[in-house]
Structures are given as C-alpha cells and as structure tokens.
Amino acid sequence: MLDKVLIANRGEIALRVLRACRELGIATVAVHSTADENAMHVRLADESVCIGPPPSAHSYLNIPAIVSACEITGAEAVHPGYGFLAENARFADILDEHGITFIGPSGEHIRTMGDKIEAKRTAMELGIPVVPGSDGAVDTVAEAHKVAEDMGYPVLIKASAGGGGRGMKLAASADEIDDAYNTARTESQAAFGDDAVYIEKYLGQPRHIEVQVLADGQGHAVHLAERDCSLQRRHQKVWEEALSPALNADQRAEIGGIVATAIAKLGYRGVGTVEFLYENGEFYFIEMNTRLQVEHPVTEMITGIDLVQEQIRVASGLPLNLTQDDISFAGHAIECRINAEDPETFTPSPGRVEAVHVPGGLGVRIDSAIYAGYSIPPYYDSLIGKLIVFGKTRNECLMRLRRALGEYVIEGVSTTIPLFQRLLAEPAIMDGRYDIHWLEKYLEDN
Fold first, then answer.
1. CB burial of residue 390 (10 Å; 0-12, 13-18, 19+)
2. pTM, 2 dp
3. Catalytic site residue from 227, 269, 291, 337
4. Domain check: are 366 and 331 in the same one?
5. What is the extent of the structural domain holding 381?
6. Residue 392 has what pLDDT?
7. Using 50, 70 and 90 to split pLDDT, how confident is the model at 165?
8. Element (H or E) spanning 383, and its range?
C-alpha cells in the first residue's frame, strides 16, 4: 500500500480523497494556489505546498510545480481527482518517468479514450455498442455532406478532442451542415487546440446512462451498475441517480457485463466510466471518462464500496479483491450538484460564505469543502458541494431529498438549491420520465 499521496486538486474532491487516504492510514499532501491557502483540504492535510498564483494554468495545471511538490514532500503517488490534470496523458507519463505513481490509468489508456474518434474505434473493437457515425475524422465540408446524407438527418458534428458540449453542433438538414461544421471546428480548435471533428447520428430523446467500472490492470474488472445523468444544462450534468429509472435488472446486467468484459480485455487499471446514450432499449457508446466522476457517490451509496479507496488499492499494485458476484445493488441514491450560481440566470456567485447549515439524518451525505467565513474564489468551477441522499426505494429517496433541501442553508452567496426544490414539484421528475433535453426545455419554459 502507498504511504504518502499528494492530492493534485482542490475543493470537495480534494477533501473526499483526503478522507479516503486517512481511513487507509496514508499520509496526505495538499497543493494549493494562493487563493486557496485557507481551503479546508489544506487545513486538514498532513502537509501542504503552495504551487502558484490563482489562475489554474499557473497552479493546478502547473505540472513542474506539482512534480516538485512531490519531490519536496516525498509523496510517492498523486491522486488527480477530477478535472484539471485528471485526464492528462502527458501528466501521467511524466509522473511515471519520475517514479511517482499516478492514481489512475496509464497514459496510453487516457490518450486512447481522450480522443473521441479513437475511443469509438476501440469501443467497437471491444464489442461495445456505438452510435452510428463517421468512420473517423471528417476533413472537409463536402465529406460532411456525404456522411450526413448517407446517415440521415439530423446529425451531430462533434470535436474529436471535445467534452462538455464544446465543439458540438447540431445540423438538422443539409442547409445547416456548412455552418455547423465550420463552427464546430473553430470551437474545437479554440477549446482543445485540435480542430478534428466527426459526425454521429442525432438521437431524438435519449437518456444519458453511464456504467461505472473498476479494474486492476491485471485482467480483472467489475461493473458497479449504472448512473442516470440525463438531467443536464448545456451538456453539464446537474442531477444524477442510481439506479436508472429507465432500466431493468436484465438490461443492467447485460450492458454491465459487456462493459466489464471489454475493460478487462483492454488491461485497464483504476476506475472509469463508460457513457452511453440510451433510446428505445438500445445503448450507444459516446465516450469513456478515465477518472473518478463528480457523481461517484451515488454508486458508493447503492454498493457500499469506496471507489477512491479502490483506486488507491489497485494503483498500489494490488489485485481486485472483488468479483462481480460480491457486488450487489441496494436501494436508490440521488445527487444534486450545488453550485454557487444564481438559480435563475446561472451567473456565478463567488464571495464570502456567511453561514452554513447542512442537512443530516439517515441516508443524507454532504460532500463539500465550504464553511462559514470561507471565501469562494472567482477563478474556478462554481461547484461548492454535492447533496447525496439514499433511500430503500426511489420514492423514499425523493421524499428524503425534498426534506434535505429544505434544511440546507448557505448564506452570503447564491446557490442552485432553489432549482432542485422547483424540480421536485415536477411530475416528470417524480416519475423518472425525462431525457437529456428535458431540463433545457423546462428552463426555457419557466
């Protein structure tokens, strides 16, 4: 087992990793920008190192500074959390060159799955069902027209190196192809430094279903069921739940088994999430995230498995101590992402937190690093916490969520808590009848 881990992140995920390390008896090193010197994970870590000024490029994305922090403190491993350097293949390679363990997959696997075209090709080779689309990058507008005509409209033009909806454009007809293609390439170049795009069939009312996997890099892998992440705004997840209201046990076992078998065959190490669009009983692969997900707590709640501790164990070289038969799925869990944003306009709301009262009681979990007197800096993502609730049934879970939201108080900044209270009044939410377009339409109409 590893002895000392440097946590190359901030906020609630840094605190989440710190807690897992502490329970395993592992010493922790926090890194931070000057804006985060009073952050909770910095206060609680065994050691801390300042790695630069507030801008991420000069701190949390500063690879030389992070490697230096490892060398100064003697940290033998780095946990990247999510975001920042979590899916940076070069970072994983550099750590390996310095004899530092990256708590995640190999740089090779990050690189493969980070390129959407290569990821889709690899998924097909591994027997994972994929969305119909172009065979690789589409290099010209003329080629885009031909692919779209052969496939049938509407189509999505997507950045090969993309994510989060950037570099993704819808073309409903041939008249829209030119603008969509050129805009997608321009956005992709600006966001990712790569203008390669590909085309996929646009599905009308799909759900976003993702399968959580855990593998040891030694040919063993298991799945931990799925999460339904269909409630999204601008392609960013807002609310996640497990298990999905749309799947039954047979569908769950089938797609989970396909994914686990594929990931084992790949030789993958660590946790990963294979994401699908799901429509009319069919699954279509869209991407794989080679890291811990923001929404991982809902999986932990229904399985009782600490995913961060499992990451650390397999990164230490230990084989999986779980088989698929050891894993069961009980109850229902929902996570709401609490952002420091205006709940109507979604404008970021950084500033001083004057007071905090978090909900409690059976089946309620809060993953957050804020406290009364903490100043939310304006330089980073607006996520300030996650409210996760668990119930024996989905209905019990929803009732508990309503109660917990009513108890949750954050004063001094605006938050998205009122949005979730509004959503719980909607029959489609209560009944689980929503798709990836539902929330956008709801916000437009309300």
1. buried
2. 0.90
3. 291
4. yes
5. 207-445
6. 98
7. confident
8. strand 383-391
